[in-house]
């Protein structure tokens, strides 16, 4: 089982990237993890949001492999506390998919075709975060989930 976080556009802030790298390194002690970056679309000013989402959807589909369990990070998805997320993740990892692929969409969200492909949608908060920060938050939550599952002292409750 491998965990993959698929994002559109590179992280531009070196401080944010350092945090992502730190949690990703910690996470790999528990499970294979990769962060895959889809290059941002060019000339998006000439596109309406639906066109941009459709083009991003094509790029997302190209990154998917047979047997992937696709999970969208979407504001309308299910919210879970960290302990609940850890249990949810444990069940998904035991279900037999080759990869759990979590996707952060572009600035306008996901094309309907990607919603259709997804097995599930999860939300990290009802608040809106930048696409840069959501990467840090989510990788940290993946790490936290694994420490919870192992009974390690990182999470206090």
State the helical fraction: 40-55%
Biggest sheet strand order reads: 2-1-4-3-5
Anisotropy-based shape? globular
| Proper CATH architecture | 3-Layer(aba) Sandwich
Please tell me the overall pLDDT: 95
Share in β-strands: 15-25%
First-last Cα distance: 28 Å
Number of domains: 1
Question: Would you give an account of this structure?
Answer:
43% of the residues lie in helices and 22% in strands. With 157 residues, the protein is an alpha/beta fold. The protein has one domain: Alpha/beta knot. Strand 1, helix 1 (14-27) and strand 2 (33-38) form a beta-alpha-beta unit. Helix 1 (14-27) packs parallel to helix 5 and helix 3 (82-94) packs across helix 5 (131-149). The longest helix has 19 residues, at 131-149. The radius of gyration is 15 Å and the shape is globular. The model has no long low-confidence stretch (mean pLDDT 95).
